[in-house]
Each structure stands twice: as C-alpha cells, then as structure tokens.
Amino acid sequence: MTKRTLKHFALSLALLGVVLSPFPSVAQVGRASKLPAKPVASPRAQAASQQTKTLGSPSYTFTLLNYPGTLSTAAICINKGASTSKTQIVGGYGSAPELNQAGFLARVSGKKTVTESYKSVSYPHEPAQQVADCINDSGQIVGVYVDASDAAHGYELSGGKFTTLDVPFTGAIGTYPFGINNSGEVVGGWADSDGNEHGFTLIGGTYASFDYPGGTETYAADVNSEGDIVGDCYDSSGLLIGFLLSGETYTAIEYSGAVETFASGINDAGDIVGGFCTTSECEVNFDGEQSFLLSGGVFMAIAIPGEVYTAVTDINNSGVVVGYYQDAAGLVGSFLATP
Fold first, then answer.
1. Which domain holds residue 123?
2. Which CATH number characterizes residue 331's domain?
3. Nearest-CA neighbor of 140 among 153, 167, 124, 159?
4. What is the pLDDT of residues 217-276, one digit of tens each?
5. Contact assessment for residue 46 and residue 284, using Cβ atoms and an 8 Å cutoff
6. Inter-CA distances, 39 with 127, 324, 327, Å
C-alpha cells in the first residue's frame, strides 16, 4: 500500500492501520462512465485551473465537531447545497485516536449559536472498520466497509436502504467510493490484484474505470453537479499531484513550493480544496501538512495554528469547508469553517 492510500484513508477511513495492510493502494481518478466525444471544460472548471499562489489566507469562523464519547472524529464531506438549516456532514469516528469503527452523520444548524446532532451510519452486519465518505443534498450517502475477510467494499445508503458497491472489473480486490453528486453520480478508486490503483465512475448503474494520462495510482475524491471531478495521482516523474477532470480534459493541481499536492473536494462553482506538504517529513508522517482553497485561479493556504496537521476535505456552494486535524496529544478532531 502506498503512502497516499494511507493518507486518503486517514481522510476517508481515518487511519484504519493494520486492517488495510493486505490491500494494494487505492489512488485517485476520475470521470463519468460515458465521456463526451470531445474534450470540454466548463468555464468554472477552467477558471479553477488557472492557478496562482497567494500569500494570503481566507478568514473563517471555526466550529469544532466531535462525535460524542470518542477520541477520533474525521469529517470528510458536506452536502454541496448546505444552508444553516440543512448542513449535513459525514465521516468516521472511533474509540482510539487513529482508528475508525463506524461512519457518522452530523446535522449542524445555527449561526451565532450552533447546534449539532449525530448518529452512527454503519453498513449492517459488518463489525469491522467502516466510514461514511460523502453525502449529497438528497441525503444519499456513500462509504466503505471492510468485511471479516479484510476485503474492502463500497456502499450506498439511499432511502434507508444499503446497497453494496463493487466494481465489476477483472482482478478487482477493493472498491472505495469517495464522492457522490446531486445526480447520484459516484466516483472513487479501486485496487487490482497486481497492486495497481485506478479511478472509477458509476452513472446510471454503469461502472467505468480511468487513469490519469501518463500517471500512476489514480483515484477520484469528489464530483460536483457539473460532473467535474478532482482527485490525485503520481505523475510521470513520480510526484504526487492533484488533478481536475472536466469533460475529457485533465488539469494538474500543484501548490507552488510543495513536494506533494492532493485535491479532496470541489463545489459547483469550481472551488477546490485539498492538502499539500512542503517537507520530506510531512511526506512521511503528514506532520506540518497544510490545506488549500483554490478559487478563481488563486491558491490560499488553510491551517489551524498549533496543530500537527490540518486536512480540509470538502467545500460546499457557500464556501463552507470541513475537515479534521491532529493535535499534539495525537487525537483527531474535526471542524466546520464558515467564511
């Protein structure tokens, strides 16, 4: 398993640790099962791809989120159309600092006085590690669970019913759905028996696999209502980069001065969030990892001061971001940040 797979499961399965060790890594990929005949990028996606670093950083009001009675809470996704009365966040939680046991759904409301309610989201009859990865405005949730034989499967929860998601590709040994949009399009990653990682899309019951051109270890992290996908991969030089896939057009996302960059969320306006490392130590253990917002072609760094790392995982259409952080005691907590 590659380091990036572990990082995404710190983001998605919140550091499942040894449970994941039998699997090859899951990279990041991205598009739909039926691609347009010609490369087309939406104007909003094109604007997002014109990248320039800025020394500024956005200003947020932070609300800390922690699943009651646990030591680890990793917020991963927020519904894109979230308003103060309809904010829904999913992720994973556990009783140990770096081990998730189940997924959760949090509902958050209010501005001056914020109220939160939590409930567990768990694929039935699977007591091993699992997580809820994304939710759309209709309340459909996708996630991942690891069964008793250590095989990873995806699921979709819709209308109170769980459906297993397993890619049908030859040699597939793991399926990891990471994003779902308001049309029900699902994106994610899958692992083959040779240890290779690929992205997939699921549209109208049809799966399609794809890989970043010239790269390796591709996986898709999120998809917006326009069908634009973000994810990450290793490029031809072996550097971990983020990417935007709009139509059939790929655009690399690289934070200036970073030794690795990964994209984790995109909203309907084409604003993208993700993370980056500027040191080799960060590449190994994520110490000092920071996050970014890429909006209107401008990068802005996001970090919670004094914490070991900050991982921004998603952004909604109002610019509200969610993510998680690790403190000096090794505990993982989550946050909602409102501009």
1. 3-338
2. 2.120.10.30
3. 159
4. 999 999 999 999 999 999 998 889 999 999 999 999 999 999 999 999 999 999 999 999
5. no
6. 44, 35, 44
